[in-house]
Amino acid sequence: MQGSILDLAVPFFLVLIGLEFFYSRLVGKKIYRWNDTVADLSTGILFSLSGILVTFVSLWIYEKFRIFCSLQVLFGIPEIPLGAPLFWEDGNFQIRFRNLAGWIFVFLAVDFVYYWFHRATHEINFLWACHVTHHSSEEFNLAVALRQSSFQRIFEYTFNLSIAFCGVPWQVFLLAHGILKIYQFWVHTRLIGKLGFLEEILVTPAHHRVHHGRDPKYIDKNHGGILIFWDRIFGSFSREEEEPIYGLTKPVTTFDPVYTNLHVYEEIFSLVRKTKRFKEKILILFKPPGWRPAGMGPSVLPQEIDRSRYEKFDPIVSEQKTVWGVLEFLLWTVLSMSLLKFFKTGNLALWKMIPAIVYVFYGFKHTGFVLSGSPGGKFRIVFLLLGGMLLSGILLFF
Fold it and tell me: At what angle do helices 34-69 and 170-186 cross, to 10 degrees?
């Protein structure tokens, strides 16, 4: 199992996060906190672990859909020319404009579909549940770019079947989609201001800061991946007038990455259970986040924030516990990377990988408890030790 272009970019992401951290300290801006950054990176690792099976199955479905249900198969439309757009001949670089047009089409199509998927995750409740994780940080920095939901890819790849319908092979799609995701990484920063004429064409850090804002005027704006003109065309564009307050309108008060993946699903399930009419149960899933049936009170709308009184969730935890939490995080990270390496090289069976992933999920959850200052640590440590011994037995002796 070979890595994608996104896998190759991860080491560069980590280097850039380190550079942003040190530069922010140099210029006197506090944009990183240990507790929040550990939560970001923990969530990103859970995203990688959960994505092993999701990506494989999704790409298999994607390619089967392309082979049997593409425009080329159903209607005899010619294949998209996707050969090399640039080649060396007679001592000069030559351009094959037909191939270049094919690649431009693919990148535009991937960016267009991403815009609509991203917008849907903000406007449809059950899709918001798979995207809310990314918005749950009250900081905005490059580490936040890695705070991704373990469930989002399931729905995102479903939207991307429209690319398969156009006849784009999965390898080409994965390359274009990976480039889009790499581009999305760098716009998660507070250290880059507005970029002149590029603000009119591309998604920039200023545009994406707006997207992460919880101020009412910034809610559900700037959904684009690379190009900002989709937002301009479809009415979801907003300029950055003042720096936003980041995070959710109902902030999460924990650094537990498992909770941030699940809390909106829990809320939706609770609402569906309390609602008596079947139609309203369905509407809870498909209406915007915050919508409520008539019998359950008014819809929950974003409220203006008193900036003079606003405080981020930043519990006071002893230095000893903070160090303990960071060391735990490093342990789970090493274990996760080892599991991924062994699995991708075919040295770890899937039936062993699944309990290992469950254990690592609980490990990162425990780290979140530590950094949040949650009580009851001794029982959870005993549970971790027993689980670790059981997992060691499975990995070593079966």
Answer: 160
Positions of E strands within the chain = 86-89, 92-95
- Say if CB 137 and CB 247 are below 8 A apart: yes
Q: Which two tokens stand for residue 104?
A: 């431009």
Beta strands in 70-184 (DSSP E): 86-89, 92-95
pLDDT tens-digit series, residues 5-19:
998 999 999 999 999
Q: Is the Cβ–Cβ distance between 256 and 250 less than 8 Å?
A: no
In sequence order, what E strands does 133-283 have? none
The residue written with tokens 């429209």 in the block is 162
Cβ atoms of 166 and 110 closer than 8 Å: no
Residue for token pair 């039936």: 351
Domain boundary assignment for the chain: 5-234, 319-397
Burial class (CB in 10 A: 0-12, 13-18, 19+), 292: middle
Largest CA distance in the chain: 75
Would you say the pTM of this structure is higher than 0.70? yes
Flag whether pLDDT at 156 surpasses 60: yes
Pairwise CA distance, residues 101 & 146, whole Å: 32
**Residue 111: CB atoms within 10 Å:** 21
Determine the length of the chain.
398
> How many Å apart are CA 195 and CA 200, to the nearest integer?
9
Helix (H, G, I), strand (E, B) or coil at 296: helix
State both tokens at 285.
């899933």
